[in-house]
Design brief:
The chain has about 450 residues and is of the alpha/beta class. Helix content is about 35%, strand content about 15%. The protein is built from 17 helices and 15 strands. Helix 4 runs antiparallel to helix 14 (about 330-345). The structure holds pyridoxal-5'-phosphate (PLP).
């Protein structure tokens, strides 16, 4: 049991058996639980009253910081007025307002917004839109979807099929969507270790899509989906020119390009989207996490007009054009939280703030070079990773120890395998950025 949790007596007060925790080592966790009871601004408070600096924006999602009263009040007001309205064949005003607010920050032309409730649902929605688009245009033989190795696109069957995280796929391998293929990932330490921002090497890796076009014939391919910066696998920043090249190949072959911006959206990289920062416009963008500061589950898909119009204009005008949607699509509370969140981003210029803090973040994270076990450091915007040497025969164990040590010292980071990842809320101060990485340094020195 670690120091943070030894005083926690939650297991005596609350039976922990029933909650089957997601993406968690349940037995290990319940033997030494890590429980958060409240949050404000940059900090969580644990059940034993310790303040913990949030270096992860929760799960890359609380970009405006915790406990924002404007959002809480907007949700409360909305719930008092209209708790729920069916989104099929009916609507409520805030759904349209939220769609307008999202469209306003998407790249030009990607202004048709479909709402869902999680990143996984957004991805499955985007994949279905891509298939429906080709079919509506009489190009229905385009059924093949292309993802990327090491990609994380959520946990729906669509998402794990196009995704490239082995652990998320292997138990379900016989049930994945047929015909899906993957381009190679972009991680190559020999060529790009310790790159600051976008690696100079690797634009040619996008040509792997040409290999798949040659193998399958491009006329069978509906869409390619990639995270502009791969997040969950440990922050893989796209090489300079790579996304431009992917765009060119997709355009050449009539393939839709989907950017999964569930992590990179809403200021994480200093702009509303990675697309805007990197100057590459896809046909479809998926979003979720920071859309409404994670106050209420919400996600969305921004489709370009040509995609939307091809589907919506194909029907007679009296029939449902797209047989898809969720009971909670554009839920009034989520939509109200979204409006309030977008207003905070705008008023407080949080995307600009993120952009201006990025050099400080880069300086501090790269200052860990040379510390024990550090074999790579990468970053873009307020998103970074420190990759550690794995212990022999125990992949992931070292990063887990560093994660626990950081937590004991009052910093909540994340880890995936032996990669530590960092993505603080955009309200983080320069001093807090220093604190995050000096804590990691101490933790590394105390870790075997
Ligand atoms: C790029 C990306 N897409 C999709 C998802 C899935 O989101 P959710 O967990 O809300 O289903 C995630 C979650 O981390 C993600 O990072």
């Amino acid at each position: 049991m670690n120091a943070l949790t030894e005083k926690v007596s939650l297991s005596k007060e609350v039976d922990m058996e029933n909650f089957w925790m997601p993406f968690t080592a349940n037995k290990q966790f319940k033997a030494a639980p890590r429980i958060l009871k409240s949050a404000k601004g940059m900090y969580f408070t644990t059940i034993d009253d310790k303040k913990v600096l949030d270096a992860s924006s929760g799960l890359w999602c609380v970009n405006a910081g915790h406990g924002r009263e404007e959002i809480i009040e907007a949700v409360h007001k909305q719930m008092m007025e209209l708790d729920y309205a069916p989104p099929f064949q009916m609507a409520h005003p805030v759904a349209f307002e939220a769609a307008k607010a999202i469209a306003a920050v998407m790249p030009a032309g990607l202004d048709r917004i479909f709402f869902a409730n999680s990143g996984s649902e957004a991805v499955d929605t985007a994949l279905k839109i891509a298939l429906a688009y080709h079919r509506a245009r009489g190009d229905g033989q385009r059924t093949r979807l292309i993802g990327r190795e090491r990609g994380y696109s959520g946990v729906g069957f669509g998402g794990i099929s196009v995704g490239g995280i082995l652990a998320n796929r292997k138990a379900y391998s016989g049930a994945l969507i047929p015909g899906v293929d993957h381009i190679s990932h972009t991680h190559n330490l020999a060529e790009m270790a310790f790159s600051k921002g976008q690696p100079a090497w690797g634009a040619h890796l996008a040509d792997d899509l040409e290999r798949l076009c040659a193998l399958h014939d491009p006329s069978t391919i509906a869409a390619v989906i990639v995270e502009p910066v791969a997040g969950s696998t440990g922050v893989l920043v796209p090489p300079q020119g790579y996304l431009q090249r992917l765009r060119e190949i997709c355009t050449k072959h009539g393939i839709l390009l989907i950017f999964d911006e569930v992590i990179t959206g809403f200021g994480r990289l200093g702009k509303a989207t990675a697309s805007e920062l990197l100057g590459v416009t896809p046909d479809i963008i998926t979003m979720a996490k920071a859309m409404n500061n994670a106050a209420i589950p919400m996600s969305g898909v921004a489709a370009s007009r040509h995609v939307h119009d091809a589907i919506v204009n194909a029907g007679p005008g009296t029939a449902i054009e797209f047989f898809h949607g969720y009971t909670y699509s554009a839920h009034p509370a989520a939509a109200a939280a979204c409006l309030a969140t977008q207003e905070i981003y705008r008023k407080e210029k949080l995307f600009d703030r993120s952009l201006s803090l990025a050099p400080k973040f880069e300086k501090e994270i790269h200052a860990l070079r040379g510390e024990p076990f550090v074999k790579d450091i990468r970053n873009l915007g307020l998103m970074g990773a420190v990759e550690l040497e794995s212990r022999d025969g125990a992949p992931g164990a070292r990063a887990y120890d560093v994660f626990l040590k950081c937590l004991e010292k009052g910093v909540l980071a994340r880890f995936t395998g032996d990669i530590m990842t960092f993505s603080p809320p955009l309200i983080v101060s320069e001093g807090q950025i220093e604190e995050i990485f000096s804590t990691v340094r101490k933790a590394l020195h105390e870790t075997a």
